[in-house]
Structure formats: C-alpha cells, structure tokens
Amino acid sequence: MPGFELFGSQERKEVNDVLESGVLMRYGFDGMRNGHWKAKELEQALQNTFQSKHVQLVSSGTAAVSVALASAGVGAGDEVIMPTFTFVASFEAIMMLGAIPVLVEIDDTLTLNPKAVEAAITDKTKAVMVVQMCGSMGDMDALQTICTKHNLLFVEDACQAIGATYKGKPLGGIADLGCFSFDFVKTITCGEGGAVVTNNQNFYTNADHYSDHGHDHIGNDRGAETHPFLGYNFRISELHAAVGLAQVKRLPEFIAIQKKNYTNLREALAEIPEVTFRRIPEGGEESYAFLNFFLPDTDTSLKVAEAFKVNGVDACFQYYNNNWHYLRKWDHLKDLKSLFPISQEVKNGLAYLKTKAYPESDHYIGRNISCLIKLSWTEAQVKERAQKMVDIIKSLV
Ligand SMILES: *Cc1c(COP(=O)(O)O)cnc(C)c1O
User: For residue 35, what pLDDT band results from cuts at 50, 70 and 90?
Assistant: First the structure.
C-alpha cells in the first residue's frame, strides 16, 4: 500500500517548485508563487480520480472526517453510527465535534453490517459512516437505502481504500461525503494530508471555510475576506500537496502493482481448503492494498499470525488484540480518558462501550489476518512469501 515505497524524481520536482518560490501556504501570496498552486492542482486531480465535483484538501484523514461531518452540520450530541473495526481516528474525529460514535457489528465485508446499522438508529442519529477497511467496502447499496429511508447523512471513511470502486464508481465518491488520508503509510502519501470529497456544493463551501478559520476565500486579498462562521485550521501545506500531486499521477501504476502482488498471494492461499476470503460486495473491486483472509477459528488465526512474525513474514496484522483498529482493546476510550471534561450527554451516550458485546465482530476479526500488499516487492519475493505463508498455515490448521 504505501506510496512512499516508490518516491522518485517526480516527487522531488514538485517539492522543488515549492521550495524555489518559498511560498508554503496554499492560499494567497499570488505574486510570489511563480504560478504554483500545488494544493489547488491536487484538488483538481483528485476530482478526476474520485469522479466527484468537489475536493477539499485538509491536514490529515482525521481532520477530513471531522471537517466532513462538520460541513454537514453534525455536532454536539448527534449520534454517528460506525463499525467496531476501524481506526481510532474515525472515533476521535466524531468525539472532537462533541458528537457520539455509536459502534455497531461488522459482517464478512469487514465493515458495517446493514442490519446492525438499522437497529442502532435513534432520534439522535445524524449520520452513518462506513469505514472502507483494508482496501474494500461495505454493502454500499444496502447502506445507502437505509440512509435514504431514515433521512441520514451517508459518509465514507475511505482512507484505506484509495483506488477501489463499487459498480464502477470510486469509493469515497459514492456517499454524501467521502474522507481520505494521505498520511505516511497510505496508498498515496503527502507525508501528512487528507481530503473531503463531495458532490454537494454547500458541504464543499462549508468544508473550504471551516478548514481555514472560516475564511470565505473570495478575492485575492486575504485581509478583505469575510468570515461567515467559526472555523479552525485544518489546512494542508504546499509542500505536502506537492508530494501528493506527484503521487496521484502514479495511482494507476500503484494499483496495478498491488493487484498483481495480491493476486499471486491469493492464488497460493486459495489452495488451502481452510482459508476463506473476505466478501467483496457484488459490483465491488478492491484497491488490493491488503489481502484479507479468514482461518477456521481465532486460536488458529492468532497462532498463524505469530508464526508469520517469527518466520519473517512481515506486514500481516491480526487485529483481535490490536488497540488501534478494533474496539475490543480500546481501554482508554472505554474509560473515557480525556485531558478535558467530556459532557454528561456524551458520557451517557458512550456508556454502552463498557458493557456491549460484539460477538459477530469478534467472530470475523478473531479469525481474520490482513496482509499489507507492498509496492516494492519483486516477483521472486512474492513467490517466496506465498510459499512461506502456505507452509505455515498448513502446519497449523
Ligand atoms: C489512516 C486512517 C485515518 C486517519 O488518517 P490520518 O491522516 O492518519 O489522520 C482514518 N481512518 C482510517 C480508516 C485510516 O486508515
């Protein structure tokens, strides 16, 4: 997955354009910037990539989730339904708005179970956020139908699914709002960065203002801008955008490499009868950033993951005991450890975290292993890795 594996002359050229002008700020300084607007150019490139009318770059994927929700008016006391398997960032981004993350069961897509979503809707629910984990997606049509029926905002955290599609449409560009991360390990990297993607003009304008202190960005003179509402600073810098601009041009190349490496590994594992794979919804195509497979039970999966580690099969994750991506071990969040007071309303809204059981999520995450697909592997390395993985699994199932 990580785009940093293939840095080259294009990344250096784009960054040097910025260093030569000295303008690191994405807005203003019109006369000094030698015509370079890297953030604007990257936003245009991403509009094409995600086939979406509007893209607002921000400083991270976490910021993208907060800005996306804020741009649609989600805030204090509102409930946002999301899956138990995610990255803590998606949870944090909701908390930052004073809103309440409501975590529900996943299914064999490794993200939202539509039935669990519908059962979790209350009169406080404002949005459903699917987290497109590990390069694939939820049942997008089923989730959209629920959101339409209950008049809820539909949001995609597509940070891990750059380049995946559903019924021919890029993920992140399907729901009302899509969120991307271009942090150091994502398929396209800016170092740090993120994007909010939407076809909704109003959400876009809100995101544009909100991510830069509420500035309206009208005219060339920053001093003359007005501030329609409160905002913060979630800007990306020109340096970061420059790296991303070089990387986005290489996305088709990255996806092709991922697909080739993924397919070779998958074909090898598919010969083991005890190995099954994560379900890709009909009409979906993964980004091939990860290969996700299931073993017959949690115990076997934990043993296989450990044996991978010991035998040098790196970059494979078993999320059951992981405290970044799976609710089970989020003790600091279950205990609501915060530097500052959390409102009683949010505390009440999150009380369920301590007691609620998630047997279906445990069933899928317990048996799952997620292997990152690297861009830098040679064919021989993939072959050797596949053989090692097959041998280890066969010796333990
Ligand atoms: C990486 C990631 C984020 C956060 O992105 P940052 O740019 O690191 O803040 C959010 N959600 C998911 C699913 C991610 O993988």
Answer: very high
- My answer on whether 318 and 224 are in the same domain is no
Angstrom distance (rounded) from CA 289 to CA 164: 9
Structural domain boundaries, residue 147: 3-250
Total domains present in the chain: 2
Ligand 1 geometric centre to CA of 91 (Å): 10
The pLDDT of residue 222 is 72
Both 225 and 160 in a single domain? yes
Q: Within 6 Å (CB) of ligand 1, which residues are found?
A: 60-62, 86-87, 89-90, 131, 157, 159-160, 181, 183, 194
pLDDT digits (tens, 9 = 90+) for 206-247: 999 999 999 999 877 677 788 999 999 999 999 999 999 999
214: left (phi over 0), alpha (psi -120 to 50) or beta: left
Question: Is residue 67 located within the same domain as residue 146?
Answer: yes
**If you measure from the C-alpha of residue 52 to the centroid of ligand 1, how many angstroms do you get, rounded to a whole number?**
20
The residue out of 250, 284, 316 marking a domain boundary is 250
Is the same domain home to 256 and 243?
Answer: no
Same domain, 192 and 45: yes
pLDDT tens profile 150-185: 999 999 999 999 999 999 999 999 999 999 999 999
181 CA → ligand 1 middle, Å:
5
Number of the ligand 1 atom closest to the C-alpha atom of 62: 9
Q: What is the pLDDT of residue 71?
A: 98
Given the residues 13, 124, 149, 186, the one annotated as active site:
186
Judgement on whether residues 121 and 81 belong to the same structural domain of the protein: yes
The verdict on whether 354 is a catalytic residue reads no
Nearest atom, ligand 1, residue 131 CA: 13
Contacts 24+ apart (CB under 8 A), 389-395: 389/265, 389/268, 389/269, 389/308, 389/313, 390/268, 390/269, 390/271, 390/272, 392/304, 392/307, 392/308, 392/311, 392/313, 393/269, 393/272, 393/274, 393/275, 393/295, 393/304, 394/272, 395/307
Query: Average pLDDT of the chain?
Result: 96
Q: Name the domain boundary from 224, 250, 276.
A: 250
